[in-house]
Write a structure and sequence with these properties.
Strand order of the largest sheet: 1-4-5-7-8-9-10-14
Structural class: mainly beta
Helix content: under 10%
Largest sheet: 8 strands, antiparallel, barrel
Distance between the termini: 17 Å
Shape: elongated
Oligomer: single chain
Strand content: over 45%
Order of helices and strands: EEEEEEHHEEEEEEEE
Number of strands: 14
């Protein structure tokens, strides 16, 4: 969090918990649905001002090494999808596309394995302040805005969130965070494209395989954060 500056006097620092975190992605093409899921693979920090929730800021990091793909197929665009299956070869392809495969140079691989969402604030929170909250739960709907760094590219992004705040005797004890709607990521914007190996583009382009691989990944997350002790 050094890039965002030190903790302000009015802020509460929160740590994102890896355990129980879930990040999913869906790429829905006409004849194939590709599902991605990373469990217990998220860390980061949030800085929260209870008196002004708009000032929420932080970093959320997802370890893409833990991302596992599965797929459903159908013969035609109006047919029935089959059973969801996990193909080891498809997961190898995913690592090549993201350049985190075994043949990538160590420094490049380590950089690319992390997807990092920087949160710069909340837009239009349904509850503006929790400064006077004493006990119980409060759910806040808001839009987090900032940027997402993926595959070495940084693109402005926003995500609709539900934030559940739990208080016990005037003390904030936990914040649960979940997507209220998917955040759509363009594979092209992040240069995620077919690759045969590190630095070697495949002959097939995203456009050529568009019936099987959607150009957009719909991302959703479920996270939990607790105050730093």
């Amino acid at each position: 969090m050094g890039a965002q500056g030190p903790l302000r006097p009015t802020e509460t620092a929160l740590t994102l918990q890896k355990s129980g975190s879930v990040v999913t992605a869906l790429m829905a093409a006409p004849v194939e649905r590709i599902f991605g899921e990373a469990r217990d693979a998220t860390d980061g920090e949030l800085f929260l001002e209870l008196g002004d929730l708009r000032k929420l800021r932080g970093l959320v990091r997802v370890d893409l090494d833990h991302f596992i793909l599965s797929q459903q197929k159908r013969a035609t665009a109006d047919g029935e999808f089959g059973e969801k299956v996990t193909q080891p070869r498809q997961n190898e392809h995913m690592k090549n596309w993201l350049e985190i495969g075994a043949d990538a140079p160590e420094e490049v691989r380590e950089d690319n394995r992390w997807a990092t969402m920087r949160i710069d604030g909340l837009r239009a929170p349904s509850v503006a302040s929790l400064a006077d909250r004493r006990d119980g739960d409060v759910q806040v709907r808001a839009e987090a805005f900032g940027s997402l760094r993926l595959h070495g590219r940084t693109v402005p992004q926003s995500m609709a969130l539900l934030l559940d705040f739990h208080f016990d005797r005037a003390r904030l004890t936990r914040v649960k965070i979940a997507s209220a709607a998917p955040m759509n990521l363009s594979l092209e914007a992040y240069d995620v494209r077919p690759r045969e190996a590190f630095g070697k583009l495949a002959q097939a382009t995203l456009g050529a395989i568009g019936q099987k691989v959607a150009p957009i990944a719909a991302l959703q997350l479920t996270l939990s954060a607790v105050p730093k002790s």
